[in-house]
Amino acid sequence: MGFQDVFKKSFLEGFTSMDITSAKIMATLFMTALLALYIFFIYRLVTRKVFYSKNFNISLAAMSLITAAIILAMQSNLVISLGMVGALSIIRFRTAIKDPMDLVFLFWSISVGIICGAGLYEVALITSVAVTVCILVLDLLPVAKTPMMLVINSSVMDGEDEILEVVDKYAKAYKVKSRNLSKGRLDMVVELRVKDESGLVSEVAAIEGMISASLIAHDGEVTF
Question: What is this structure's pTM?
């Protein structure tokens, strides 16, 4: 038997069977469950979606437990760990993550499962607290005010100049996003930032031939 065979045999004997006691399994799953519930409540607290997805939030908590169980199984046997890597490599997730914050929570949930599965409970706890503080603090930082959309419907086709004069009076900067001329009608959408919202709408609505004037806020990305 050569040196290579002896090395392989000793390596496999050292890692083929690692003792994973019931106490360690219970402690790992218990700590993972606590942190999973913590992630569940933090996600519910910081989410800003109009339609809250409870199923996605539940999946975050369940994913931590499943990941921790996989890490425990991989620690117990080297052959199982190699087979697990091969099995997990064929899994493909087709669901697109539209909100970047959902991706952060998803990675956070998986990381907690991996760290707890490795027995590093303090690291998982400190990491969870640090991530929470980071999210909450950065969320409180002021950003530029989201622009608003002024939607105008007028029966005067050549009344754009008069409308923009009023807009220029209330807004330092604005941009005409759309301009639609039809028979006997002018439709405009102007993007702007304004403080006196009611004053702008009232003065625009008072222009001769104005059918309607609406100021709409949106929750899209802020452009600087």
Answer: 0.62
